Amino acid sequence: MPFPLTHGPALHDDIYFEVPYMDPTSRWVMVQEYPGDPTSPGLDYGTANVWRTEVATGKRDLACEGAIGIHGCAVSPDQTTFYCCRLPREDCVEIIAIDFATLEQTAVFFEGAPTKQYSLGSISPDGRTFVTGAYLGPHHFGIVRFDLRTGEWRLIHEGADDLCNVHPQLEPRYGRDILVQHNRGARLTDDGEIIDLVGEEGATLYLIGTEGGGKRTLPVGKPFTSPGQGHQCWLGETGEILLTVCGDGIAPMPEQGILCRLRPGDAEAVPVARGHAFSHVGCSRDARFFCGDAMSPWTVVVGSMKTGRSHVLCDAECSPAPAFGAHPHPYLSPDCRWVIFNSDRTGIPQVYAAEVPEGLLGELDEE
Q1: Regarding beta strands 129-137 and 140-147, do their DSSP bridges make them parallel or antiparallel, or are they unpaired?
Q2: How many angstroms separate the CA atoms of 366 and 364, rounded?
């Protein structure tokens, strides 16, 4: 049975799903705690306090105060370091590296950097390069690269409203490529408020290099597949990408193979597993297993990348139209013992852990 890692009345969030926000031993998980009314549908990300929570005991320690909610969060590929951002002034970004084991902080200040961020962050394997998306002005978005050794920053990629939700992800083995989400047809007001997050053409993905050039399109979304959901991650250190596409509505999704894998250069994305209307997805560090949430109602699912066999680990018990912080966004712990996810089952979004039964993943992996 799932058990809570956080407790009300404050809203808590497991951040997102692209990487596990846990240390390499799977002892601790980083969660965010938000002030304000957690049931307000108008609650934006704002600022949050970051807490390191021990899964086995629930003991928690304050890791960082006043971080930008969700925007700019990242974990090093070796899982030893958590990153978040603060805004000490309107014209300065502070990127904070927090050691999981000791909670020791290292902060780097970037004067004049864009302070309106619209995506998660991502960190290179050597811990030097940090990237995130940014709002640059009316109908102007881009990707900013920060050098954590020199304190220099540079805008490396830019575009219009269609780059409002880029989710840049550095490839975790070599750190030479950045995976970019392209929300074709997105429309925003002059003030940056979203009118349409995506248009009729739908979302797709492409790659760029860390200097911002070398754009390579990927066969995701129309005309290759149905539109991308905007939920994707690097498949461990394999160089492949795990993603979901929309399908033709929730009812037929389970048999349409909307959970797919793709290696850059492939002619097409291929289905990984069927049987569920998958939404958010993540994978184990060794790329053998996947974890995701499925609709509807929301369930938490684990499965084998090799066989495509899957198992419903638990019912997320989210509300039908979850408020902020309530989509499950599940991920597997580095040791594959736990799945961490969100739920508003109590009326307030909180973070939960569900234990993966011993031997289950091995059984799913047997052909």
Answers
A1: antiparallel
A2: 6
Which token pair is 84? 């978040």
Q: How many CB atoms lie within 10 A of CB 311?
A: 15
- Dihedrals phi, psi of 103, to nearest 5 degrees: 65, 15
**Each residue's pLDDT tens digit, 195-226:** 999 999 999 999 999 999 999 999 999 999 99
How far apart, in whole angstroms, are the C-alpha atoms of residue 202 and residue 200?
5
Exposure string for 336-356, b = 16+ CB within 10 A, e = fewer:
bebbbbbbbbeebbbbbbbbb
Q: CA 255 to CA 268: how far, in whole Å? A: 18
How would you classify the pairing of strands 129-137 and 3-4? unpaired
Give the pLDDT of residue 52.
97
Cα gap 199→150, rounded to integer Å = 39
Tokens linked to 334: 């580095």
Cis peptide preceding 24, ω within 30 of 0:
no
Q: Are 206 and 219 in contact (CB under 8 A)?
A: no
Residue 271's nearest CA partner among 284, 283, 287, 254 is: 254
Within 10 A of 110 (CB to CB), how many other CB atoms are there?
21
- CATH dotted code for 3-250+261-271: 2.130.10.10
Cα 204 to chain center, whole Å?
16
**Pure H helices in 55-204:** none
Calpha distance 17→332 (Å, rounded): 9
Distance CA(143)–CA(132), nearest Å, equals 6
Find residue 237's DSSP bridge partners: none
pLDDT, one tens digit per residue, over 13-30 is: 777 767 899 999 999 999
Helix (H), strand (E) at residue 248: none
Contact 219, 242 (CB under 8 A): no
Q: Where are the domains of the chain?
A: 3-250+261-271
Kind and range of the H or E run holding 4: strand 3-4
